[in-house]
């Protein structure tokens, strides 16, 4: 057994995962992003509780941010107060077990490739639609992490120069147009414009415009609200355009799209596929990648991180290799 | 010895290349794009002439367009009248030698990685700036060609939705902003606007606006014309932005930039590097790829194709592997 831990902006989820990718037990705690020591303490607590009932060989940790190629150090994490944090060393001392750090999107992609929707796919691009866009690639059964371990930041490809401001310091990044945050922002703008079509959305938040999030809109869309469905269609159009851009560059056999926004299901997938087909360069003269929703849901990152901790070997050159 | 053949939109270049990447002899002929049989005949003629003086083991052919993963069939070529053309089979019969087909940008990237600027680089992205943008990746000593063999079309990533029309059927593709064609178009627009700053450029073409090309502007810039230098700076800004996008996605250790537009040298490289640094996501928290001009010049594609014909093994999964 291995433990997979998924550290997000608001919570830490930990699970015992067997070698078939099945989650046998799971625990959650809120994160204390401002204090790395507190996050470490939370991890120790979770491993200790889960380890009481299962024999645990190793621990895999997936977190938003950039890990160095050896899987030992957090170079940078946008939501957590980690800068050049030697997290693995600290944790191996505290846990007395091998620990592997990985980017959360890499963990999710690995989970989907090993146990989920993309089993057997030789060229996988995985997109996680949450507050932003997480990205990862599995090529020939290897996580492709780039020369310095920071590949896969598809969400920060500029697709609209001079467009919406992004936290990364640029303007017009893809994730400002195709993410849960983008969906919430567009819905709030619609509501602030006093548009009558935003009625249903406003009712859902008792008129509190600031409480409108992507999740609220997604839920309204599932209940049939026309404006919410349109807002998700707009996100799908940007998503499809960005996937076509990735297909031009990477030519994968499959895109797997996961993350919270996928709760919208076909309401998101259909416009995404339309926009992808319309924008794919060379359409008609080439095969096109499939676009599929993730199979493992929110557990993908945890499952992937656990599996990676069991078997990951890091090549000098930059690939995380099984 | 192997022969490398570079088939472009206007000419076929063939060279005898030794296993150190040295071109021992070279010949050129105009292409007859409208007739695949005529191009085959030209190739046979070139190989026969070069083969008279050197022992030739194999022939590698680089051409604009998409080859299937086995290196046997041209799926699509924008400048040549080939559609699903079994070029290798035809040529092996005619030449009595093993033949390997490869995309011209892949050939150039392989040449630069094996014998040129990028020797030893584990994550190379190669950009060829000609009429459009050619792209290719060498990862861990393998050409990465994607699932269907059509990866690397970076020039057709949309970076300006609704922008300039592209021959590929989309609008706003990167190559409409950072290529020789883009440079020519911008200069012609400046001249048509009767701008006094376009005087030098107009003088170079005797007032014939339609004769203004990227090459004309590049030459004027090298002679010190301020407007031409500005036009190249604009191209560099778009080039740097696009390279930053690629760095976000692929995180290479090095970009090698080749092709005709590189005649501009530092006039292009300096603004490119400025824009890259300004647009790189996560700047300050990550190492940045080097941006270098190609070393092998116009011969890179020929040298790479020759070398690939000697030793290429194609994996089922999609990588061209040594």
TrEMBL record, chains A, B:
Organism superkingdom: Bacteria
Signal sequence, start to end: none
Gene Ontology cellular component list: cytoplasm
Keywords for the protein's UniProt record, in alphabetical order: ATP-binding, Kinase, Nucleotide-binding, Transferase
Coiled coil: none
The EC number(s) this enzyme carries: 2.7.1.2
PROSITE patterns: ROK (PS01125)
Molecular function via GO: ATP binding; glucokinase activity
Any matching Pfam family: ROK
Biological processes per GO annotation: glycolytic process
UniProt similarity note: Belongs to the ROK (NagC/XylR) family.
Record's protein name: Glucokinase
Species, as recorded: Psychromicrobium lacuslunae
């Amino acid at each position: 057994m291995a433990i997979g831990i998924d550290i997000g902006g608001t919570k830490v989820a930990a699970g015992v995962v067997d070698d078939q990718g099945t989650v046998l037990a799971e625990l959650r705690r809120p994160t204390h992003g401002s204090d790395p020591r507190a996050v470490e303490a939370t991890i120790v607590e979770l491993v200790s509780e889960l380890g009481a009932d299962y024999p645990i060989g190793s621990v895999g940790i997936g977190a938003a941010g950039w890990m160095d190629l050896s899987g030992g150090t957090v170079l940078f994490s946008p939501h957590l107060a980690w800068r050049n944090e030697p997290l693995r060393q600290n944790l191996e001392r505290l846990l007395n077990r091998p620990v592997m750090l990985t980017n959360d999107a890499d963990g999710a992609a690995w989970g989907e490739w090993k146990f989920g929707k993309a089993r057997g796919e030789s060229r996988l691009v995985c997109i996680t639609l949450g507050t932003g866009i997480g990205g990862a690639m599995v090529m020939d059964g290897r996580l492709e992490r780039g020369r310095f371990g920071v590949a896969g930041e598809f969400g920060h490809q500029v697709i609209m120069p001079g467009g919406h401001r992004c936290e990364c310091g640029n303007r017009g990044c893809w994730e400002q147009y195709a993410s849960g945050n983008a969906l919430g922002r567009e819905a709030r703008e619609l509501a602030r414009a006093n548009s009558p079509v935003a009625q249903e959305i406003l009712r859902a938040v008792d008129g509190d415009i600031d409480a409108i999030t992507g999740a609220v809109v997604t839920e309204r869309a599932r209940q049939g609200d026309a404006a919410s469905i349109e807002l998700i269609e707009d996100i799908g159009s940007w998503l499809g355009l960005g996937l076509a851009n990735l297909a031009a560059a990477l030519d994968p056999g499959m895109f797997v799209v996961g993350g919270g926004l996928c709760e919208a299901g076909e309401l998101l997938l259909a416009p995404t596929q339309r926009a992808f087909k319309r924008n794919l360069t060379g359409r008609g003269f080439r095969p096109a990648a499939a676009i599929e929703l993730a199979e493992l849901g929110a557990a993908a990152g945890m499952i992937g991180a656990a599996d990676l901790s069991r078997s990951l070997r890091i090549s000098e050159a930059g690939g995380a290799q099984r």
